Amino acid sequence: xxxxxxxxxxxxxxxxxxxxxxxxxxxxxxxxxxxxxxxxxxxxxxxxxxxxxxxxxxxxxxxxxxxxxxxxxxxxxxxxxxxxxxxxxxxxxxxxxxxxxxxxxxxxxxxxxxxxxxxxxxxxxxxxxxxxxxxxxxxxxxxxxxxxxxxxxxxxxxxxxxxxxxxxxxxxxxxxxxxxxxxxxxxxxxxxxxxxxxxxxxxxxxxxxxxxxxxxxxxxxxxxxxxxxxxxxxxxxxxxxxxxxxxxxxxxxxxxxxxxxxxxxxxxxxxxxxxxxxxxxxxxxxxxxxxxxxxxxxxxxxxxxxxxxxxxxxxxx
Length: 317
What we know:
This protein is α/β, with parallel strands linked by helices. Helices cover 44% and strands 14% of the residues. A hairpin with a 2-residue loop joins β2 and β3 (165-177).
């Protein structure tokens, strides 16, 4: 399926977004990852092609659609059928086919490999330089109600207090390239897990500097970070910065250094904004950490494409 064969309507806002994303996704590399695990069926109704199912899977993440909503949207929105290459077909994938494809990706742990494939393409184009990393974590809510079939909440989710408010769900930890804002590492844990305990897993080892917010105070003293040859730059708590007497040269210099550290660290917030606001992923849809961690890898991989799409298209001419 070639890009020119899709016949996408690029006059609408949604059509323009889908068209841009279609150009920057490394389809051949992703299909090569899935092909060895694709289902084979000699009898019965033939399965849908893996490229069509992968495109549907991406549409789900870009527009925050459940399996049921995606099934209905394929019937209602011609743009989605065109993007998936199903424009002239009488039979469309139902919710079960969509669910099975997602389970295929989860079973063979293909989402982290897709993130690596995306980043390999970005590195080849010079968008990821690996000279510095910014790390952070964000809370993603999970249903806290017990009004369900089991009468219990997800046993792998926990609650954590942020400020004066309690949150129930999981925590997404990411490592971001400090130059390009693109995510290179994703770790999913329960919400009550401390940020510092995952710091060692969020650096790839090739960077010379790592930046973090005050929640990572003392990270350089932890045993699991001692072997990492990286200089940690953790910002000072806001209360201490406000207490500085900026009329004194030494205090003013410290404040300017903290501002510089904060500007670098703040780059990690952009992928969170894309995932939560652009893709609408503010609450998990599945139970169990493994399933949600796989979805996080896919979401942040797609956020990389979203943030770098204009630079990539410009490089492609």
